[in-house]
Amino acid sequence: MSITIEQIDQIMDRTKVSYKEAKEMLEKHGGDVLEAIIEIENKTVEKEPAIKKETVNEWKGKFKWALKQFGKLIQKSLLVKIAWKKQDQFLFELPLLVVLIVTFWLMPFSLIAIVLPFFFGIKMMFKRESGRETDIASWIKKKTE
User: Fold this and answer.
1) Is 123 helix (H, G, I), strand (E, B) or coil?
2) Does one domain contain both 84 and 140?
3) Within this chain, do residues 90 and 140 fall inside the same structural domain, yes or no?
4) For the chain, first and last CA: distance in Å?
5) Which end of the chain is more exposed for a tag (fewer CB within 10 A), N or C?
6) Does 58 share its domain with 108?
7) CB 15 within 8 A of CB 22
8) What is the DSSP string of 14-58?
9) Which residues contact 60 (CB under 8 A, 6 or more apart)?
């Protein structure tokens, strides 16, 4: 049986193989387009690697590690507090996490709330669970030098 260009095009369109591969499959199956397509598809399925269980387990492990690290970060940000202090008296304090969330949601107002206390002699402090306090202005100055 003679092989036509239409048969080759039909196989190439359905299987995305090269002209040469389509022609060879048609010759192998005596011009039977359906049998040629079936064999090409079977070969393609064999070539595609299945997702290995190890790969899935590796991703699960990495995800669990990242989730654990995120949990630790949240815990630490709840332990560290931002405190507003005038002279030796604390006016109020909030967990760092709360301050970050509010700052993100209300950006323009947050910037005002951060700058405004400096005009009234109010210091912003990092206050750790251990009792250690760090003035934010001096901390920023030290980090930028």
Assistant:
1) strand
2) yes
3) yes
4) 84
5) C
6) no
7) yes
8) HH---HHHHHHHHHHTTT-HHHHHHHHHHHHHHHSPPPPHHHHHH
9) none
Q: What's the domain range around 57?
A: 52-78
Phi-psi group of 85: left, alpha or beta (phi > 0 → left; psi -120 to 50 → alpha; rest → beta): beta
- Residue 69 pLDDT class (50, 70, 90 cuts): very high
Residues 6+ apart with CB under 8 A from 18: 12
Q: Which residues contact 83 (CB under 8 A, 6 or more apart)?
A: 90, 91, 92, 93, 124, 125, 126, 127, 133
Same-domain status, 114 and 128:
yes
Calpha distance 77→98 (Å, rounded): 9
25-44: pLDDT as tens digits: 889 998 898 898 998 888 87
Q: Are strands 81-86 and 89-95 parallel, antiparallel or unpaired?
A: antiparallel
- C-alpha 95/C-alpha 36 separation (Å) is 68
